[in-house]
Specification:
By secondary structure, the chain is an alpha/beta fold. It is built from 18 helices and 15 strands. The protein is globular and about 75 Å long.
Length: 418
């Protein structure tokens, strides 16, 4: 539909490509104009970091705060104990309370880079749904909340239907997840005046459930807004590289590797990603995205610098850029490359094998993959092709660090501990 927003937040969402659907464009827009609106996105604590696939949601919360409203980051300390079945082929492994708490602590570091948490009217809130879910009394919950849910309707949701159509098991535990998520919205509205929930378009059914429950129990009007599920122009899921997930925590993905992920964006995605993941003006994003030939590489460097600055700071972005220039343009060894430090105990009488080093450096996942890479002339040491899979590296070869490369874009340093 064509809707012309009046609020700054809705205008940003529409112009920058964040908006897939909304339950009531006019109603939400009017609420955003009327005053400070609290809104939330839920994040389950299934790992110690979020990855790039969650960055679109984090940027939505950042824009919400930038346009004068109050973001709520809801950590799923309670719902993580159940697991979201949405569009999964299997049940999630159950985590202990200690694992969940450790994951939440790791994820909080990421939010602090994008969102301001303080006591001001637009200061963000960091909440945990274990606050209200852990102490639920089951019979009371069934009577007061469960009666508002139709099993027929729950079975019709695409996330459930897809599992059942494939005759894959869907446990009663997981089936409860959508009720708990709806209850989160109700509690956030009751406790904090939260007026809308945002999420990926795969969460549409869960969001609508929460809106319906809040209306039935509290007789309050609330709203839902979803973002598109992003894939890259070559059809890959956003946030994945050839090595797996691109994590947002620096200890799980070094700033240089993060920078390089964005620098490797395809030409077709550059303009779209500039709009979604940076705060450059829309017109500038479109101008940069329309560049062709060698010039589009400059746009990708701007993208990588801007996104890395937001997460890791300007210094880390500048260091990553300098390293990339050193490695790619001058054939040198950049200071900021991912580094493997070897101890003398890592060597046996003949040294350490080059295959093992490639694995240790994270350039390949297995010895078999290392050997295949070498047979295809894709592995290099100090920019010279590696062809001998039996090559052993002795400590004396590491008086200065060596650079290992897989293909043209992935590099690591190997050095000897001092």
């Amino acid at each position: 539909m064509t809707y012309h927003p009046k609020s700054d937040f809705m205008a940003a969402m529409m112009a920058r490509g964040f908006l897939a659907d909304c339950t009531d464009y006019q109603g939400l827009d009017d609420a955003l104009i009327a005053g400070v609106v609290p809104a939330y996105i839920g994040f389950d604590a299934t790992a110690t970091s979020l990855h790039v696939g969650s960055l679109i949601q984090i940027m939505m919360l950042r824009w919400l705060q930038k346009t004068g409203h109050k973001p709520i980051t809801l950590m799923g300390g309670g719902t993580t104990k159940v697991g979201d079945p949405s569009f999964r082929a299997d049940e999630r492994p159950l985590l202990t309370n200690e694992q969940i708490d450790a994951n939440i602590a790791g994820i909080q570091q990421v939010f602090a880079a994008y969102i301001r948490y303080d006591d001001s009217p637009t200061g963000a809130l960091m909440l945990n749904n274990a606050e209200w879910l852990d102490d639920l009394k089951y019979l009371d919950f069934l009577r007061d909340i469960g009666r508002h849910f139709s099993v027929n309707r729950m079975l019709s949701f695409e996330s459930v239907k897809s599992r059942l159509d494939r005759e894959q098991s869907l446990s009663f535990l997981e089936f409860n997840y959508m009720i708990l998520q709806a209850y989160d919205f109700l509690e956030l509205n009751r406790r904090y005046g939260c007026l809308f929930q945002m999420g990926g378009s795969d969460q549409w059914g869960n969001i609508v459930n929460g809106i319906d429950l809040t209306r039935r129990v509290l007789d309050h009007q609330v709203f839902g807004l979803t973002s598109p599920l992003l894939t890259t122009s070559d059809g890959k899921k956003m946030g994945k590289s050839q090595d797996g997930a691109v994590w947002l925590n620096a200890d799980m993905c070094a700033p240089y590797e993060f920078w390089q992920f964005w620098r490797n964006t395809t030409d077709a995605d550059t303009g779209r990603f500039l709009k979604l993941y940076t705060e450059l003006p829309v017109a500038e994003c479109e101008r940069l995205g329309a560049l062709e030939g060698a010039e589009i590489n400059e746009a990708k460097i701007i993208l990588a610098n801007e996104v890395t600055t937001l997460l890791h700071g300007a210094e880390a972005a500048a260091a990553a850029h300098a390293t990339a220039r050193e490695v790619f343009e001058k054939g040198g060894v950049g200071d900021d490359l991912p580094t493997v430090t070897l101890e003398m105990s890592d060597f046996d009488d003949t040294g350490i094998s080059i295959v093992q080093l490639l694995v240790r450096a994270g350039l390949v996942k297995s010895g078999k993959e290392a050997k295949r890479l070498m047979s295809e002339n894709g592995a290099r040491m100090d920019d010279q092709p590696l062809t001998d899979a039996g090559l052993m590296i002795s400590p004396s070869a590491l008086t200065t660090p060596i650079k290992l490369s897989a293909g043209k874009k992935r590099h690591a340093l190997v050095r000897l501990a001092e």
